[in-house]
Amino acid sequence: MTDRLVGKTAIVTGAAQGIGFAIAECFVAEGARVAIADINRDRGEAAAARLASEGATVIFEAVDVADQASVDPMVSRVVQRIGAPDILVNNAGIAVFRNPLETTAGDWQRCFSVDLDGVWYASRAVLPYFLEKGKGDIINIASTHSFKIIPHCFPYPIAKHAVLGLTRALAIEYADRNIRVNAIAPGYTATEIVERIFAESPDPAATRRATNALHPVKRIGRPEEIGWAAVFLASDEARFMTAECIVIDGGRSALFHE
What we know:
- By secondary structure, this protein is an alpha/beta fold.
- It is 46% helix and 16% strand.
- A 7-stranded parallel sheet has the order 3-2-1-4-6-8-9, with helices on both faces. A two-stranded antiparallel sheet has the order 5-7.
C-alpha cells in the first residue's frame, strides 16, 4: 500500500458491512483514522474491532442518518475521539422497491429519509470542519439506479438521482474552497445482502449465473473494488476532480440491450 490517506480522519456511514465496510477497510490500509458510523451497534462494534485488531485507529459511533439530531452529535463525538474529519463517505442506504401506485407515504418517506436526507445531514455536519481546515472530501455512494430505470424499483432510483444532484450542487458551491464532492455509482456488488438474495432464490446457482451473464465482464462486482475507488477520490491523486460520478458496474450500463 502507498499510505495515501495517512494523517486523515474519515467517517464512513453504513460501514458495519458490505460496501461501507470495504471502504473503511481500504481507508485503514492506506493509513486513515476511520469512524464506522452505523445504526446497527452490534455489527458496527464488531466491524470496528476487526479493523482495529492490527493497530489501526478505528472507532464505532452509532447513528441514524435519517435523523439530524442523531447525525450532528455523532460527528461531534468523532471529532472528540479521533479528530476533525477530512473525509466523509455517505454510504448508508436502503433499497425500497415498489410499483408506483403501491408505494405508501411511509415507503416514500423511509426511502428518502435515509437515501437522500441522510446524505445531506451528514454532509451538513462535516462542512463546517472542512471550511475551517480549508479542505475536505465528500464521497457519496450513489448507484447505477441514479441514471437508469428498472421497473418496479420505485422510488429508490428517484432518491439516487437526487443524490447525484446533491453531489453536483455541493461540489460547485464549495469548489473554490478546496472542498471536493464526488460520487461512486456501483452496480451489482457481492455484498451480504446480494449473497442472501442468491441463497434464498429457488435455484441459487442459476440465479448467480444469470446475474453474472448480465455483465460484459461476466461477473458482479466485489466490495473492495468500490473501496479502492473511494480511496482514489479521497486522495490527492483526485485533487482536480469534483462534481463527478465514477460508475463501477462491469460495463453493464453501457449495454444497449440488457
